[in-house]
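Q: I'm a student working through a structural biology exercise. My instructor gave each of us a protein and asked us to get a predicted structure, then write a short paragraph describing it. Mine is Mediator of RNA polymerase II transcription subunit 7. I'm not confident about reading structure output yet, so if you can add a plain explanation after the tokens, that would really help. Here is the sequence I was given:
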Amino acid sequence: MATATYPPPPPYYRLYKDYTENPNSAPKPPPPIEGTYVCFGGNYTTEDVLPSLEEQGVPQLYPKDSNVDYKKELRSLNRELQLHILELADVLVDRPSQYAKRIGEISSIFKNLHHLLNSLRPHQARATLIHIMELQIQQRKQAVEDIKRRREEAQRLLKDAYVTLDGQ
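A: Happy to help. First, here is the predicted structure for Mediator of RNA polymerase II transcription subunit 7. I'll explain a few features afterward.
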């Protein structure tokens, strides 16, 4: 019984058979997807928008205004999370049947923490790019200084060699 190691190529490879002779003979790639699309049963969007907690069905535990003090709110949510975890331990010891409510509250706090952190991602990305660009500028300045130093050294060596030849 003979078996193939690899499956045969898909039939559309024939569309590219004349590509080496005429690169324009290949079909054009499909246009980029815009809007929403379905992949493996999940709905996705090409827009880079952070959905609100209400859209996700999660109660927002921090103020809804645009001037949120992220540091203060993250600390507050972190303390609240610690308190709820301690309460969960207490509930599991004393009243194990009531743990589901505490788990739901902890889940809500985690989702709020993640939402706050994700809203800081654009700022983090911008700061990272600024840092990378500053490093590149510094490296290029060092490279220019190194080139200038080597040029001056080469000029000095040439001048010394010229003086030595004139002295003979």
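A: Here are two points you could use in your paragraph. The chain is about 55% helix and 5% strand. The two ends are 89 Å apart (CA to CA). It's a good idea to check both against the output above yourself.
Q: Great, thank you!
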